[in-house]
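[INFO] parsing input record for RRM domain-containing protein
[DEBUG] input buffer:
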Amino acid sequence: MATITERHTIKVTNLPRKYDLLELRQALDQEFGNSKSIDKTATCPIKKLYVSKSKTEAFIKYFNSEDAENIVNMDGHYQIYGHELNVKFARSKPK
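[DEBUG] output buffer:
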Protein backbone atom coordinates (compact mmCIF):
# COMPACT_ATOMS: atom_id res chain seq x y z
CA MET A 1 0.00 0.00 0.00
CA ALA A 2 1.31 3.45 -0.88
CA THR A 3 2.33 5.95 1.76
CA ILE A 4 1.30 9.58 2.04
CA THR A 5 3.49 12.42 3.21
CA GLU A 6 2.16 13.89 6.44
CA ARG A 7 2.71 17.64 6.02
CA HIS A 8 2.18 18.54 9.69
CA THR A 9 4.65 15.97 11.02
CA ILE A 10 8.41 15.66 10.74
CA LYS A 11 10.53 12.60 11.42
CA VAL A 12 13.87 13.06 13.17
CA THR A 13 16.44 10.28 13.06
CA ASN A 14 20.04 9.73 14.13
CA LEU A 15 19.23 10.63 17.74
CA PRO A 16 21.96 10.24 20.34
CA ARG A 17 20.88 7.17 22.33
CA LYS A 18 22.94 7.71 25.47
CA TYR A 19 20.37 10.14 26.91
CA ASP A 20 17.11 9.16 28.57
CA LEU A 21 13.74 9.80 26.94
CA LEU A 22 12.96 12.89 29.01
CA GLU A 23 16.29 14.52 28.13
CA LEU A 24 15.75 13.78 24.43
CA ARG A 25 12.20 15.16 24.51
CA GLN A 26 13.41 18.38 26.15
CA ALA A 27 16.29 18.79 23.70
CA LEU A 28 14.02 18.14 20.70
CA ASP A 29 11.44 20.59 22.02
CA GLN A 30 14.13 23.23 22.39
CA GLU A 31 15.64 22.58 18.94
CA PHE A 32 12.42 22.25 16.95
CA GLY A 33 9.94 24.28 19.00
CA ASN A 34 11.71 27.51 18.13
CA SER A 35 12.01 28.24 14.43
CA LYS A 36 15.43 29.12 13.14
CA SER A 37 13.83 31.76 10.98
CA ILE A 38 15.48 34.87 9.67
CA ASP A 39 14.25 37.01 12.54
CA LYS A 40 15.03 34.27 15.15
CA THR A 41 11.91 35.27 17.12
CA ALA A 42 9.20 33.19 15.46
CA THR A 43 8.13 30.04 17.25
CA CYS A 44 6.75 26.81 15.85
CA PRO A 45 4.31 25.51 18.44
CA ILE A 46 4.52 21.74 18.72
CA LYS A 47 1.24 19.86 18.95
CA LYS A 48 2.76 16.47 19.80
CA LEU A 49 6.28 15.11 20.27
CA TYR A 50 6.96 11.39 20.37
CA VAL A 51 10.33 9.67 20.88
CA SER A 52 10.46 5.94 20.22
CA LYS A 53 11.40 3.75 23.18
CA SER A 54 14.43 2.57 21.25
CA LYS A 55 15.43 6.26 20.88
CA THR A 56 16.16 5.76 17.17
CA GLU A 57 13.57 8.24 15.91
CA ALA A 58 11.20 10.99 16.94
CA PHE A 59 8.04 12.36 15.41
CA ILE A 60 7.09 16.00 15.90
CA LYS A 61 3.63 17.18 14.88
CA TYR A 62 2.96 20.89 14.44
CA PHE A 63 -0.33 22.75 14.52
CA ASN A 64 0.47 24.34 11.14
CA SER A 65 1.91 22.57 8.11
CA GLU A 66 3.88 25.75 7.31
CA ASP A 67 5.88 25.31 10.53
CA ALA A 68 6.82 21.74 9.59
CA GLU A 69 7.73 22.87 6.07
CA ASN A 70 9.95 25.63 7.45
CA ILE A 71 11.82 23.15 9.64
CA VAL A 72 12.32 20.62 6.82
CA ASN A 73 13.30 23.25 4.26
CA MET A 74 15.90 24.98 6.46
CA ASP A 75 19.40 24.63 5.10
CA GLY A 76 20.82 24.63 8.62
CA HIS A 77 21.96 21.49 10.31
CA TYR A 78 20.09 20.41 13.40
CA GLN A 79 21.98 19.07 16.39
CA ILE A 80 21.28 18.03 19.93
CA TYR A 81 24.11 17.32 22.33
CA GLY A 82 26.55 17.80 19.43
CA HIS A 83 24.90 14.99 17.44
CA GLU A 84 23.79 15.85 13.88
CA LEU A 85 20.16 14.93 13.18
CA ASN A 86 18.35 13.89 10.01
CA VAL A 87 15.03 15.65 9.42
CA LYS A 88 12.35 14.94 6.84
CA PHE A 89 8.59 14.81 6.52
CA ALA A 90 6.98 11.80 8.17
CA ARG A 91 5.13 9.33 6.01
CA SER A 92 1.93 7.57 6.96
CA LYS A 93 -0.13 4.75 5.50
CA PRO A 94 -3.52 5.74 4.06
CA LYS A 95 -6.51 4.79 6.18
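[INFO] The chain has a mean pLDDT of 82.
[INFO] shutting down worker
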